[in-house]
Amino acid sequence: RFGVDSAQAMSFTLRLSKYLGAKVAPSTLYEHQTIDALALHLCSQTRRDRGELVTLQSGDPDRVPALFCLHPVGGSAMAYLGLVEQLPAHITVHAFNNELDDSAEDDVPGMARRYLTELQQRQASGPYYLLGYSFGGVVAYEMARQLIADGYEVGGLYMIDTPAPLYQDQDPNPSVHEGDRFSSFVAQAIL
């Protein structure tokens, strides 16, 4: 159970809100009095915000381009919290949330197009850096494909534990999905 007074609750929820990129009211601590209950509540709230692009880390976009992360099956951007803790503070990290249910898009190209609309509201021009974990890698690949087809620059496409995309009579662009580019991106960002 949380043992905090109102000032501590306000301070904690402000930090939590900044970290999650979504408002968390101090009353949330009193309504969900254990860490497990709070985590379940925050995850369910995150999943209700289908398609929302959240900022997991605010960095310095003038120093290094932002990294956009695509959710695995289940739709939670929370899968990237461990990664964000390992990245330098000057890297901006955004992540998409989307609960995959009956109301979600039926196809990956449709989901990618919708996400690109949100992404380009946050960053109007490239280069774009996309990271996808599992199913998110499939969506990231499709987003990169659409960006290139529309004439935008993709600086990096990183896929973790993702099945290889199938090329259906299309010319794959090997420069987009070279495996060592993510480590290069991180190395450059650290400098």
What can you see in these coordinates?
The chain is an alpha/beta fold. It has 7 helices and 5 strands. It has helices spanning 6-20, 27-31, 35-48, 81-86, 108-122, 135-149, 181-190, and strands at residues 53-57, 67-70, 93-96, 128-133, 154-160. A 5-stranded mixed beta sheet has the order 1-3-2-4-5. Helix 5 (108-122) crosses helix 6. Residues 100-105 and 174-179 have low confidence and may be disordered.
Query: What is the N-to-C succession of helices and strands?
Result: HHHEEHEHEHEH
Tally of helical runs: 7
Give the neighbour order of strands across the main sheet. 1-3-2-4-5
Shape: elongated
For the report, how would you describe the main beta sheet? Answer: 5 strands, mixed
- Give the CA-CA distance, first to last residue: 42 Å
Average pLDDT: 77
Low-confidence stretches: 100-105, 174-179
SS class: alpha/beta
Oligomer: single chain
Strand content: 5-15%
Secondary structure: number of strands: 5
Portion of residues within helices? 40-55%
